[in-house]
Amino acid sequence: MERRSFLKTAGAGLAASVALPAFAQAPADTRTITVINPFPPGGGTDTSTRIIMRKLQENLGVPIVVDSKPGGNTVIGTEMLVRAAPDGRTMGLILNNLSVNQTLYKGKLPYDIYTDLVPISLTHGNAHVLLVHPSLPANTFQEFMALAKSRPGKLTFVSAGSGSTNHMCGELLKTMAGIDMLHVPYKGIGTLMPDLLSGRVDMLFGALPIGLDLIRDKRMKMLAVTTAKRQPEVPDLPAIAEFYPGYAFSSWFGYAFPKGTPPAILNRMNVELNKAVRDPETRARLAAFEVFGSTPAEFVDFIKVETLKAAQIIQTANIKVD
């Protein structure tokens, strides 16, 4: 199922939702809710979570704390989530790394994504864009592809590590276009930037907000988006799918409870999360992201589709953990 089709279905499901019980077992319960962020503080993932949680806290009238637990390609933070008490007081950010890790760490994960997590809602996401250094003799996606085909194995694309969205976008293009590019993994986006900006490496499939920042002062050139369709922030930029139908890979974000969380708490939080992300103030502050919203069941189905897609890319490209 494509993301756009999924979102239409999600909207229909939300329209049919009804009034639900109070969030806590007792209406006067104002204990703090902890949200586990499996990335370091300060990045786009952390920032978007804090924007959403600020509105959620305002709506619920309950203190919410974002607790960053980075490491292990999000495995550390996710393990903390699945081990938390299922009382609605701990939820965690889950994202496309969850689907990637299911195959990348097959048989080695300390949890099962289908039995140890209770997805609440798919809340937001962002496109990635093909960024190339200004020294590269390509000003359009077509010119870039011609260059890549003329230099098999010579062009380098960087990533924040094996299995990262940057990496998966590149491997999917290699497979679908039949080109050979050299992957150079780093330990995070921050560590790769000096080599990318100096031209030591050629390109990055970076998140759209990063791309917009890098092209503002012409430090990079932006050639295409990795989503199935063009993005409103960059309407003149083609989608890779226009040249290679079916190409699509980007970042998605949502929230989950540990298994055993009561249905009443799950349903109420689903309603409140969707209300928070769709609030006009929140949408304005999340301008660099697509805002979604879904039912729990729709989010489960979406994760299954994304996990299958990630598995196909990993197996075809023979991706291994760094």
Low-confidence stretches: 1-28
Tell me the domain tally.
Answer: 2
Quaternary organisation: single chain
Shape: globular
Cα-based radius of gyration, to the nearest Å: 20 Å
CATH superfamily of the largest domain: Bordetella uptake gene, domain 1
How would you spell out the order of helices and strands? HEHEHEHEEHEHEHEHEEHHEH
The CATH class of the largest domain is Alpha Beta
Describe the protein.
The chain is of the alpha/beta class. It has two domains: 3-125 and 250-317, D-Maltodextrin-Binding Protein, domain 2, CATH 3.40.190; 128-242, Periplasmic binding protein-like II (D-Maltodextrin-Binding Protein, domain 2). It is 41% helix and 18% strand. It contains eleven helices and eleven strands. The protein has helices at 3-15, 44-60, 75-82, 96-104, 141-150, 165-177, 189-198, 208-216, 263-278, 280-285, 296-317; strands at residues 33-37, 64-68, 90-95, 117-126, 128-132, 156-159, 182-185, 203-207, 221-225, 251-258, 290-291. Strands 2-1-3-10-4-11 form a six-stranded mixed beta sheet, sandwiched between helices. A five-stranded mixed beta sheet has the order 7-6-8-5-9. Helix 2 (44-60) packs across helix 9, helix 4 crosses helix 11 and helix 6 (165-177) crosses helix 11 (296-317). The longest helix is centred in the C-terminal third of the chain and has 22 residues, at 296-317.
